[in-house]
Amino acid sequence: MSEIHDVVIIGSGPAGYTAAIYTARAQLKPLLFGSSVFVGGSLTTTTEVENFPGFPEGVDGPELMTRMRAQAERFGAQMIDDDITAVDLTGPVKLLTDSTGTVHQARTVIVATGSGYRKLGIAKEEELSGRGVSWCATCDGFFFKGRDIIVVGGGDTAMEEATFLTRFATSVTVVHRRSALRASKVMQERAFADDKISFAFDTEIAELKQDGTMLGGVTLRDVATGATRDLAATGLFIAIGHDPRTELFQGQLDLDDAGYLKVASHSTRTNIPGVFGAGDVVDHTYRQAITAAGSGASAALDAERYLATLTAPRRTGEREAAIPA
């Protein structure tokens, strides 16, 4: 015997919390699984957010997520800091299993699991996150006025971030493992034409140097010869890509070649009725807190409209006869 929920949300970043706020206000009593170790999503690793509307003085990322969570709870959303480890989304009642083996039932599911920045995988990378090491130039570039900055990567994102950072930095050094950039021609030309940007090709980051609690520089290594050299910098922006957190849904929900969740145009609907996607798990392009929040609202509205089409009673708290084996 298991309670049937109108809405279950998987993910606790801006998209998940906004979806919870909207569905809770619609009296759908959503159940949100926010992860056992990563509650609040990527913004919990950001020291200050200055571009989220309504906070003219800025707000710490963790505080913003705490406020969003409290707002959803105020309207009746139930939060569980646990992981969903298995799903069966195929039937009209979706089955979601948490880490304890408990199976939860839902008529609609909003997937807001986000994406993770790819990391270098070297010592002190995590320790210096928010202390000179960042994965988002538009989030953190403002804090590096007059600094010497390094950008790691060779694609369009790296060139876009390097160009953006010249608004604040004294210098930007692009470090790339290959002898040529992978970025589009227009992005390369824009970066090459900027006097503040220099390039270190056939080079990788071998070590992060610490100055007190902050980043003080890096050791660069030539990938061909192994020769190393030190480079002073107080900012390191890593732009080597993102990995959407969609492993749980492979084989059930349609994914694109990069692993992002596919949704129908001008909606958040996936290929399975009653399942919706929101936030960075579907967003290749913007990956901002405000765009994720907006798509969370859209997913909530889509879920509410879907529930309105169902003929069966939809009161959260009714019981299903049995859970299929």
From TrEMBL:
The keyword Translocase is assigned to this record: no
Domain called FAD/NAD(P)-binding: residue spans: 5-296
SUPFAM superfamilies attached to this UniProt entry: FAD/NAD(P)-binding domain (SSF51905)
Cofactor note (record): Binds 1 FAD per subunit.
Cofactor: FAD
Keyword Nucleotide-binding: no
Keywords assigned by UniProt, alphabetized: Disulfide bond, FAD, Flavoprotein, NADP, Oxidoreductase, Redox-active center
Catalyzed reactions per annotation: [thioredoxin]-dithiol + NADP(+) = [thioredoxin]-disulfide + NADPH + H(+)
Pfam families registered for this protein in UniProt: Pyr_redox_2
MF (Gene Ontology): thioredoxin-disulfide reductase (NADPH) activity
Signal peptide: none
PROSITE patterns found in the cross-reference section: PYRIDINE_REDOX_2
Enzyme class: oxidoreductase
Transmembrane stretches, start-end: none
Subunit structure: Homodimer.
Family: Belongs to the class-II pyridine nucleotide-disulfide oxidoreductase family.
Protein name, per record: Thioredoxin reductase
Gene: trxB
